[in-house]
Amino acid sequence: MADDVKALITQMATNARRAARQLATLSGAQKNAALNKIADTILARQAHLIAENQKDLEQAKKDGLAAPLVARLTLAEKKIAQMAQGLREVAAQTDPVGQTIEAYDRPNGLRVEKRRVPLGVVAIIFESRPNVTADAAAICLKSGNACILRGGKEAFYSNMAIATIIAEGLKAAGIDGAAVQLVPTTDRAAVPAMATANGLIDLIIPRGGEGLIRAVVESATIPVIKHFNGICHVYIDKAADVDMAVKIAVSAKVDGVALCNTEECLLVHKDIAGKVLPRIATAFREKKVEMRADPLSLGLLQDAKLAKDSDWGKEFLDYVIAIKQVGSIDEAIEHITRYSSQHTDAIVTNDLAAARKFCVEVDSSSVMVNASTRFADGFEYGLGAEIGISTDKLHARGPMGAADLCTYKYIVIGGGHIRV
Question: If pLDDT is split at 50, 70 and 90, which confidence band does 1 have?
Answer without folding.
Answer: low
